[in-house]
Amino acid sequence: MNSRVEEPVRTYSYLGPAGTFTEAALAQVPEARGQNWRPVRNVGEALDDVVSGRSDAAMIAIENSVDGGVSTTQDALATMPGLRIVGEYLVPVQFVLVGKPGATLADVSVIAAHPVAYAQCLIWLGQSLPEHAHVPSSSNVTAALDMLDGVGGADAAIAPPGILEHHDLQLLADNIGDNPKAVTRFVLVSRTVAPPSPTGADKTSLIVELPDDHPGALLDMLEQFATRGINLSLLASRPIGDELGRYRFVVDADGHVFDERMADALLGLRRFSPQVVFLGSYPRADHAIVHYPSRYSDDVFVEARDWLRGLISGEPGE
Amino acid sequence: MNSRVEEPVRTYSYLGPAGTFTEAALAQVPEARGQNWRPVRNVGEALDDVVSGRSDAAMIAIENSVDGGVSTTQDALATMPGLRIVGEYLVPVQFVLVGKPGATLADVSVIAAHPVAYAQCLIWLGQSLPEHAHVPSSSNVTAALDMLDGVGGADAAIAPPGILEHHDLQLLADNIGDNPKAVTRFVLVSRTVAPPSPTGADKTSLIVELPDDHPGALLDMLEQFATRGINLSLLASRPIGDELGRYRFVVDADGHVFDERMADALLGLRRFSPQVVFLGSYPRADHAIVHYPSRYSDDVFVEARDWLRGLISGEPGE
Amino acid sequence: MNSRVEEPVRTYSYLGPAGTFTEAALAQVPEARGQNWRPVRNVGEALDDVVSGRSDAAMIAIENSVDGGVSTTQDALATMPGLRIVGEYLVPVQFVLVGKPGATLADVSVIAAHPVAYAQCLIWLGQSLPEHAHVPSSSNVTAALDMLDGVGGADAAIAPPGILEHHDLQLLADNIGDNPKAVTRFVLVSRTVAPPSPTGADKTSLIVELPDDHPGALLDMLEQFATRGINLSLLASRPIGDELGRYRFVVDADGHVFDERMADALLGLRRFSPQVVFLGSYPRADHAIVHYPSRYSDDVFVEARDWLRGLISGEPGE
Amino acid sequence: MNSRVEEPVRTYSYLGPAGTFTEAALAQVPEARGQNWRPVRNVGEALDDVVSGRSDAAMIAIENSVDGGVSTTQDALATMPGLRIVGEYLVPVQFVLVGKPGATLADVSVIAAHPVAYAQCLIWLGQSLPEHAHVPSSSNVTAALDMLDGVGGADAAIAPPGILEHHDLQLLADNIGDNPKAVTRFVLVSRTVAPPSPTGADKTSLIVELPDDHPGALLDMLEQFATRGINLSLLASRPIGDELGRYRFVVDADGHVFDERMADALLGLRRFSPQVVFLGSYPRADHAIVHYPSRYSDDVFVEARDWLRGLISGEPGE
């Protein structure tokens, strides 16, 4: 008889197939090792898995240092309730150009590539293959596999370097990305849970709508942060989608909701905005300690509350 | 045997002698009727009475609509601990020119007057008595009494109209003030007590020092109010006194410390400023209801706190 | 003998082939009628045509009401010198699902679609064809043509309604877009020229970099507009691309550079920012007259300059 | 025959009689040496002399480091047109207590003093002569002379130390001022002239009214300075005088109207405010060089104008 308690297996959704940058991001999650990894075809499917309970968490790309915010991810997080970001991961983005076994660069005229990957190799392509045509693919790995299978008519594909370990492909060129420091930022998303404990190197992600379209509404929103010494590492606008000119804002702010100054800023935002979605407070991938002026430290907030309590009860107001 | 409980007599200090505008202000206080009124010679003495316990409260002038803030009052409130403003009163300021019985305007060459009163009659004096000389007095009533007694060499005095009821004086001219709508604002000051209940028509008085002398410190201070929809009815600067160019600010803000938005602004000020003196929240003399945008109402603050509590505990952040 | 002067033929580049939304935008340009229309495959090619002189102007999509800013366009305008926006055009975005002649909706399993078009039909697709797979295409028209040709393996395509006039396709479903009010905004770009005259209903497009990464830099930038009564209709961030967390901002501001307040705001921006790209002032597609507080009108600026000139020369300063 | 051209004698008004702090300020003006010095009895008379042409300039006290702004001076400058500040001077403020020849401190019960001087000796008086009474005087020298003459009933007077050189008085106590670093700031006022050349250590004095009584009007005014890197050394409010709660602001700003950033701030103020009185740009008494961020230097303004001119004419906007 075996009295050992079995840990239930956890399931993680990610943009597949094996070999994608998303898989590389998931590989950075210690808790995910040895668990069930579920490849999906797009971000919506990944988040649906989480909401429906098919998966415990999903790894999704949220921003690329060259191409910018991943708009489908930002829009999905803005509109799907019940989700929370619990971790952040960075994956360096390198690209190779691959062909079928035996191919040479001179043979290439049609290139399959995910549009984001394609956009990051434009300089190299313009110099090395000025006459090429582009066939878009749904993932960096699919581009190569379809090319191998003859689907789509491409004779080369842009792919992550790791693909060469999984498939029989001809390397035609490596390091073809325009920016050698390119990196993609991923977040791990779970169902709504309490935020993980602060580490001192945290960020807080929010989606904020502005009250109305007057010249100062965005200013007012930003002042909620500035007036508490909080730096923003990301401010992106996304159309709300009902008509041109209406936007919501995706905000990454330095610090954790358990920090007094961040909690106070969230209160200010909530009072100000018709809609604030709290996406989570979680450790930063770069582990950079958040610095802020000492007058925004927790003890200053606590002391001020004590002072206010005293003067309301009739103690001297100094 | 008499079982009646004797109410202890309360003492109120005010700038005397009888007949001053300050006495007129004190006459507006229902609780002061039939109590002990203690005339004093200056604001410092009045506030000392309160701090030392000789008086229960003091009525002091704090601002004149023509001459501006009463600087000795503002400075005393900024530096004497243990005081709190509990009420505000307005007294219309009218002046008469008086002489000895039998005198005529043509006889007047030297005029006794408190400097503030003198400053408010300059237009009339310039037109009617361009050749006069001025002898300053320590109060509006003293000016007339000294003139009657032959002290100081004046042959006329500027005085409040009520003085004619108390003393045998010749009215030489009335309504000689430059501004027929002139008014002086008084405050009733007690030892530190809990603020009176909000009435909806309240103001909050503060003394605030700025953290340092950078271009934006005052801006930052004002934003603590503006960002919570709080209007300021008074902002005056007073030298701290240690060197030129260092000021503290006297602030009257619309609303009561029991209003959520005001409490929140005070917290912001306290965190920001090296020194905030809370002088009190009390009913406005003009009984003007404080209006503010509905997004700064108490329920918005309460709702935001509930929301924050929910998302910290792991509920969906929307 | 014929003295008639021949107008030279003008060339306009646009994302082809015939039938795209971009072509519909170009059809709105009166001056382009009867001229040479040059279909190209992507935005970079279109702008290259202009810079190199192959074309006189290019029509390019810059923003979609559902999908947001067209990042390749924004990035190209930010980094390619010598371009200027001279006009703005709106095209309603409607989609149809088409198949080969004789096909039915029940036959569809693989759908070809440009990724932006695909993203705008997700609701309908999720309800009507939940099991479908997606093959990305490089344009809305190419998707249908490739499907007709059997390239890419799709058995249906998402396309603009106009395509049915040009090609023998089976209409499987119409109005499949998620938002019936969806619209795409296009701009007409020429080489650098003086701005067209103000119409009263103009906008000014800019790319602005922030001086450094302190909490208030974006606030400072926005204040350059707010403090002159200028409303922003667009504020989008785009990564500069050198490292994560560095952004430039795409700004559309209401008004024309020939308006005093806009010229003054541009001066303020230029002094503040390490890099401001002026993309142009041009008539708004919606012809909405720009309203602004009267204190920001041209005559107020002119009067203030006269006043300053007077006081520098020694005239009274009032 | 004498060909020498006679310099016309210049007349300077100052608060007399000889021995006042104002005379000490006038003694700091090199151009005033050997000219005609005209003692007057108050600030209004001094400024009237200038406006009417009786004097070329007037020296007037504008601020005391302990007592604050001299409100009569501030109000006169705000309302009398045709004046301009051309210089600033600082006089250390020390006080002595004097009596009639042969008197001792023990004899003193009534003290004559100008109210501002009296206010600066309260600590010493409270400790050394707690039982004294105060008789106000119109100047620091008049207090002593009246006491000598037996006018006003005082048996001692507070006076500047220099008075002992002019009059036969008994020194009863010296250094009786509460603040050994007390200083009074004076300005030299002429009829409106072009500002003196910048020295790099200048200040600019203004009187500004706010457009209306909304929470942000003062904020908007201060931003005109902050957004151009201009520090304020003085911000004082003065009642406009028509009703309680309406103020104008007295502003001293670091820099000269010939500095681009200051001229630009004045333009912004003028556009914003219903009333701006330019009182002058003049060298600071403390000769402190004005420091400001380099991005507000003149060349940045000039460069921005060149850039704007270029893009309006059709040059590339970068």
UniProtKB/TrEMBL annotation, chains A, B, C, D:
<feature type="domain" description="Prephenate dehydratase">
    <location>
        <begin position="11"/>
        <end position="191"/>
    </location>
</feature>
<comment type="pathway">
    <text>Amino-acid biosynthesis; L-phenylalanine biosynthesis; phenylpyruvate from prephenate: step 1/1.</text>
</comment>
<dbReference type="GO" id="GO:0004664">
    <property type="term" value="F:prephenate dehydratase activity"/>
</dbReference>
<dbReference type="InterPro" id="IPR045865">
    <property type="entry name" value="ACT-like_dom_sf"/>
</dbReference>
<keyword id="KW-0057">Aromatic amino acid biosynthesis</keyword>
<dbReference type="Pfam" id="PF00800">
    <property type="entry name" value="PDT"/>
</dbReference>
<keyword id="KW-0028">Amino-acid biosynthesis</keyword>
<keyword id="KW-0584">Phenylalanine biosynthesis</keyword>
<keyword id="KW-0456">Lyase</keyword>
<feature type="domain" description="ACT">
    <location>
        <begin position="206"/>
        <end position="284"/>
    </location>
</feature>
<dbReference type="InterPro" id="IPR001086">
    <property type="entry name" value="Preph_deHydtase"/>
</dbReference>
<protein>
    <recommendedName>
        <fullName>Prephenate dehydratase</fullName>
        <ecNumber>4.2.1.51</ecNumber>
    </recommendedName>
</protein>
<dbReference type="InterPro" id="IPR002912">
    <property type="entry name" value="ACT_dom"/>
</dbReference>
<dbReference type="InterPro" id="IPR008242">
    <property type="entry name" value="Chor_mutase/pphenate_deHydtase"/>
</dbReference>
